[in-house]
């Protein structure tokens, strides 16, 4: 069984990439893989795995000492401003490079003792190589995705949050991608979450044969527990937005489309669960200033344990994001038997069915509204069938064991192709 050196974003009972990564590591350990995980206890510490056979945690030297030292002299009121300006600049110019050197040093030292078979990065692009070890990076999306859509949506962002936020983000991502463009090429096999992401990676210059597509695994029993709350038979239909609020997620589009929907139907509600960073408070004001407040409900967050009940209490999950590699909330909704509405650049559509997934063709309020009407019409006549197909679709695509079966094949391919290449170079 392979011995793996691993670094990445991992957290139990969390949504999105961090929770999926925890499930995968846990399953790999149960299958006998030996995993050495490198990280920091204050930010990246899957403590629940401590004590598992074949798992070793290596704590790295404390990060961002100088940055935290400077922040310590500032009043708490200025901490967010510091993090988004000088702190972010320090992170890109110095702290991140220092951190990667510490990780590389630790991995190389342990490789000299244990001889790793594979280097695995979870949730990010591999930032270094180790001689004689193939590198697999399970990435969250194509390079420059966030900046591409921030720039594309500049007019809306400036209107809601002001020009300073836009230029601040431009400086941050310019520095970040100046580093990333060198790191991308350190990976042997890339794993992404959708065909859309693969197309973007190929356009970036990565060879198609080195890119594999896998969905994030889901804890299906957690979401599909029969004892959980069932939807009421209320005549009022509820749409759910679940996830963070930032420019690419298109809350502006959501609110405009919902306003159009209310002009045609009053038997609808919109629940919005998701936080906006302080710099994006202008997006939050779209909720606060919405005229029909009686038709919306907002909460910045909920405990993870309540998410299945929340989803099941709603009729449709809507995710109008642009450039979505893989929408975990979409997968979670399908696990709960709830249909979804997605846009044309939402890669999660690869793992849905036309019966339980409604696609709008353009990122316009009118197109989104029409798709919301279509979804309402369908669920009013065949809600049980749609729910059943949604669950079946989720089990087919997001079952943990199936995803890890495919992941094992990727690991083996990475090892085989690496050593074939190495042997050819020697001969």
TrEMBL record:
Residues 225-384 form the Glycosyl transferase family domain. InterPro entries: Glyco_trans_1. One of its GO terms (molecular function) is glycosyltransferase activity. GO terms for biological process: lipopolysaccharide biosynthetic process. Keywords: Transferase. The keyword Transferase applies. It holds the Pfam family Glycos_transf_1. It comes from the Bacteria. PANTHER family: GLYCOSYLTRANSFERASE WBBK-RELATED. This is Glycosyltransferase. It comes from Drouetiella hepatica Uher 2000/2452.
